[in-house]
Design brief:
The structure holds two protein chains of two kinds. By secondary structure, chain A is mainly alpha-helical. Chain A has two domains: 59 residues; 203 residues, MetI-like fold, CATH 1.10.3720.10. Chain A is built from 13 helices and no strands. Chain A is globular and about 75 Å long. Chain A starts with 5 loop residues before the first helix and ends with a helix. By secondary structure, chain B is an alpha+beta fold. Chain B folds into two domains: 232 residues, Rossmann fold, CATH 3.40.50; 110 residues, OB fold (Dihydrolipoamide Acetyltransferase, E2P) (Beta Barrel), CATH 2.40.50. Chain B contains eight helices and 20 strands. In chain B, the strands form four sheets. Chain B has a six-stranded mixed β-sheet with strand order 6-7-8-3-9-10, with helices on both faces. Chain B has a five-stranded antiparallel β-sheet with strand order 13-12-11-14-20. A five-stranded antiparallel β-sheet of chain B has the order 15-19-16-17-18, with no helix packed on it. In chain B, helix 2 packs across helix 3, helix 2 runs parallel beside helix 4 and helix 3 packs across helix 4. Chain B starts with a strand and ends in a 9-residue tail after the last strand. Classes of the chains: A mainly alpha, B alpha+beta. At the A-B interface, helix 9 and helix 10 of A face strand 6 and helix 2 of B.
Chain lengths: 280, 360
């Protein structure tokens, strides 16, 4: 439907702009708050214009964390978050691709059984199985390690299912042509399925990276020194009787937003293509 | 170069009650193009895929150049296949599509380049080598699929309905190209189609298949003029052959269609038996006075003017079955007319109504 009436154009723009303002205003306030000093914020006369302390707040956060002694610097938290998000994303995609490949292209006993087993795990998100998973990770001695942080989160029924559906749309003749050309299963996977799945992989990468980056409950449980940035912000707020250092917290928040935004911008073109592409 | 032996080959899918392919014997000579023709579901593609190695062979043997290849992987059979949907690799360029098999075979880069270049020139694809399949027209994709088969320098070409996705004009054009190419390269070929025009024009020999059996194997014109069974007679030729119930006279010199009699020496030795009479629409001619013993009267229902021909729909002796006659030139007729026609007696076929076999 293509309407071309000025009133509709005006109205639709108004709605969209209202939506954008609604989303961006809190972020803007956070950005402004990260440029004032604590006193200005506490006396409630911060206003909506940037203050003079941008550099001080950000460098404090980056190098020291909140200025309480013993705090973790934000660069270290960001590094932990980045490692966790990347490992989760890459392993999730790799494992899902391989399991979907096995389920679609190989005839082995209990094939459908395995598929349904994987599918059923959709009903068991981290929050549901958190106690037994914690128990397992603790007994394996993986508490407060990258392995403990990531491995319990890498199996993904959703991604496996998505790739399975995609592989099933790849025409059988393509596999047969490759077979006649002499490509074995792994060559077929590498030379045909993988390049054809790239847009899907990109879309999943974005979704899973943000999923990994935003993990809260699991890192909160099993990390101690390996603070991720989400957990870091949480600890900065939980100061008990002390003062919450709002400018530094806000600076940290702003910095924590940058990597996901960067990933989205980088993958945007492929992401959209992966969601709308129909051509095989 | 190589011949292909199909020796008592059968196929039964797991769990199926009966064989899909019920024992087919055929030898395709070196350099020959054999067309496998039949309605959908007759097993022609299954048979081709068994030669290719994409389906397991349940019984019998397939030999290529004398070697039994039943247990060999497709890549070790020295064959190349052109698929109905072309099955081009969508993410690879035309060059990549043609070179892929050679790369896997581990050929040196220079050799791959030379072969692809040569095939591209042969198929007039040399200016398209960098394109992706989606940027090509149907005919060009078809040619890339052919090119991918040619560069492998196979001993046998397998075509699985390669032209069925093209429009009519392009199909005619590509048909000629395939024929020319196959002649020029002299590679033994098996070609599956359900289009009888394609089959008649392309094949050195045809195998007409029905329900997992080879009904008849022979040169296209032999099959046209001597169909072995009712099925073959009805399948080859357009418009299809007319079939009429009849009976051979007691002196075995003629057949009766209702109250009309046609003299034919094909009735010899069949005295008194019921037969199915087959006559192609194009083998009627307007009756003149000379041959009254092969004359039938057609009661006209409908006519179609094609310009070059006139197709007349009618009934002989109100026998119930619609009879088509295709007569040269423009005829002015109206429904209800009676049209006297002569049957070319060499082109009259008598079939056993029980078994469907040609009695001659």
């Amino acid at each position: 439907m293509v309407e071309n009436r000025p009133l509709y154009t005006w109205l639709s723009h108004a709605v969209l702009i209202a939506g954008v303002v609604l989303v961006f205003f809190p972020i803007y306030v956070a950005l402004i708050a990260s440029t004032h000093d604590l006193r200005t914020i506490q006396t409630a006369n911060m206003g909506l214009l940037p203050g003079p302390h941008f550099w001080r707040n950000y460098s404090t956060a980056w190098t020291q964390g909140s200025d309480i002694s013993g705090a973790t610097p934000v660069w270290y938290m960001m590094l932990n978050s980045l490692v966790m998000a990347l490992v989760i994303t890459v392993l999730k995609i790799a494992i899902s691709l391989l399991s979907a490949f096995a389920i679609v292209y190989f005839r082995f006993p209990f094939r459908m059984g395995f598929f349904w087993l994987i599918f059923i795990t959709l009903m068991l998100p981290v929050e549901v199985r958190i106690l037994p998973t914690y128990e397992v990770v603790a007994r394996l001695g993986m508490l407060d390690s990258y392995a403990g942080l990531t491995i319990p989160l890498v199996a993904s029924a959703t991604a496996t299912f998505l790739f399975r559906q995609f592989f099933m749309t790849v025409p059988d003749e393509l596999a047969e042509a490759a077979r006649i050309d002499g490509a074995g299963p792994l060559k077929f996977f590498r030379d045909m399925l993988l390049p054809l799945s790239m847009t899907n992989v990109a879309a999943l990468f974005v979704i899973l990276f943000i999923y990994g980056w935003n993990q809260y409950l699991w890192p909160l449980l099993i990390t101690d020194d390996l603070e991720t940035v989400v957990i870091g912000i949480n600890r900065m707020l939980a100061v008990g009787d002390g003062q919450v250092n709002w400018p530094v917290v806000m600076a940290t928040t702003i910095m924590a937003m940058i990597p996901p935004v960067f990933v989205v911008l980088l993958m945007q073109r492929w992401f959209v293509k992966g969601l709308i592409e129909t051509e095989k | 170069m190589a011949s292909v032996d199909i020796d008592a080959v059968t196929k039964r899918y797991p769990g199926a009650g009966e064989d899909t392919i019920k024992g087919i014997d055929c030898t395709i000579e070196d350099g020959e193009l054999l067309v496998m023709l039949g309605p959908s579901g007759c097993g022609k593609s299954t048979l081709l895929r068994m030669v290719a190695g994409l389906e397991r062979i349940t019984g019998g043997a397939v030999r290529i150049a004398g070697d039994v290849v039943n247990e060999r992987e497709p890549k070790d059979r020295n064959i190349a296949m052109v698929f109905q949907n072309y099955a081009l690799y969508p993410h690879m360029s035309v060059y990549g599509n043609m070179a892929y098999g050679l790369k896997i075979a581990g050929l040196p880069k220079a050799e791959i380049d030379a072969r692809v270049q040569q095939a591209a020139e042969l198929l007039q694809l040399d200016h398209l080598l960098e394109r992706k399949p989606r940027q090509l027209s149907g005919g060009q994709r078809q040619r890339v699929a052919m090119g991918r088969a040619i560069v492998r320098e196979p001993r046998v070409f397998l075509f699985d309905e390669p032209l069925s996705n093209l429009d009519a004009k392009l199909r005619t054009q590509m048909r000629v190209e395939i024929k020319r190419l196959q002649r020029r390269l002299g590679i033994t070929s098996l070609y599956v189609t359900h289009d009888q025009v394609e089959a008649m024009t392309l094949g050195d020999r045809l195998m007409v298949m029905n329900a997992g059996m080879a009904e008849q194997i022979g040169a296209p014109l032999d099959i046209y003029s001597h169909p072995a069974s009712l099925f073959v007679a009805g399948f080859i030729g357009s418009p299809a052959m007319n079939f009429l119930p009849g009976r051979v006279s007691d002196d075995a010199t003629s057949v009766r269609i209702g109250h009309q009699t046609v003299v034919t020496d094909k009735a010899r030795g069949q005295a008194g038996r019921p037969v199915t009479i087959g006559i192609r629409p194009e083998h009627f001619s307007l009756a003149d006075t000379g041959n009254a013993d092969r004359r039938v009267d057609l009661h006209v229902d409908l006519i179609e003017q094609l310009g070059a021909d006139t197709v007349v729909y009618g009934q002989i002796d109100h026998a119930g079955d619609v009879v088509l006659a295709r007569l040269p030139g423009v005829l002015t007729l109206t429904a209800g007319d009676t049209l006297p026609l002569t049957i070319d007696q060499g082109q009259l076929h008598l079939f056993d109504p029980e078994t469907g076999k040609n009695l001659w």
